Amino acid sequence: xxxxxxxxxxxxxxxxxxxxxxxxxxxxxxxxxxxxxxxxxxxxxxxxxxxxxxxxxxxxxxxxxxxxxxxxxxxxxxxxxxxxxxxxxxxxxxxxxxxxxxxxxxxxxxxxxxxxxxxxxxxxxxxxxxxxxxxxxxxxxxxxxxxxxxxxxxxxxxxxxxxxxxxxxxxxxxx
Length: 175
Fold this sequence. Notes:
Blueprint: E1 2-4, E2 20-29, H1 32-43, E3 55-58, H2 88-92, E4 94-99, H3 105-114, E5 117-120, H4 126-130, E6 133-140, E7 149-163
Parallel strand pairs: 1-2, 2-3, 3-4, 4-5
Antiparallel strand pairs: 2-7, 5-7, 6-7
């Protein structure tokens, strides 16, 4: 299914575990260090550098772009490294995260309770995923290098629904 985030954002909530999606629209990158900074800013009631309302966060730290490229390889980071920040997603109004691998039990419960969606992409496909990035802009925490927050405009960004709005988790499916 193709979903244009600018037109069909609510279609994300109709997806079921295992559905393959091609995204078009804006997503943001953020990894461990960026999450830690955001957590500190929330605790100190500081203004956030990004309006994450209805945003999707991709756990990735892209490599530098080579000449003529929009972005370098952009494979997913292991999502469990961000599990301790799951409680922040509704506070930031983030509707979905994208990464690889399962989430721990506490994170999964938090996502299901708040209807935060989780999508997975395949590790090792960073160069292929980079082809779907049409524009990349570093927008916050510049000193973090690859772990800075970037705004990506994507078209054809492929992923699989791993935790849906109905409380299903692809990693809990029984055969």
